[in-house]
Design a protein that fits this description.
Helix content: under 10%
Distance between the termini: 40 Å
Order of helices and strands: EEEEEEEEEEE
């Protein structure tokens, strides 16, 4: 059974930092497209950052230079380091995995709330 469990969300002031973690079980990170999505109220879910097998990451323009995605294959965990947070970063953040060889095998975490407010 595949599980993606996010943690690390919370309330932070503008300019602050948070690190989200996604603990994956039942899959190999090296065999999956791993991404972080977010969804703000009344907005569509958007891809924030992604990485494949430890290669070059990709970021949405809105977070470039502020967010960093990384993986620890030994811990089967994906991280999203978020710096210089802005109120517009407020959203529920979801961990996502899609198998590189069978694209129909995709999985979502339950989400973790990030609120940026003074």
């Amino acid at each position: 059974q595949v599980q993606l469990v996010e943690s690390g969300g919370g309330l932070v002031q503008p300019g602050g930092s948070l690190t989200l973690s996604c603990a994956a079980s039942g899959i190999s990170l090296g065999h999956n497209f791993m991404g972080w999505y977010r969804q703000a109220p009344e907005k569509q879910r958007e891809l924030v950052a992604s990485i494949i097998n430890g290669g070059s990451p990709n970021y949405a323009d809105s977070v470039k230079g502020r967010f960093t995605i990384s993986t620890d294959n030994a811990k089967s965990t994906v991280y999203l380091q978020m710096n210089n947070l802005k109120p517009e970063d407020t959203a529920v953040y979801y961990c996502y995995a899609r198998n590189l060889f069978t694209v129909s095998r995709e999985y979502w975490g339950q989400g973790t709330q990030v609120t940026v407010s003074s």
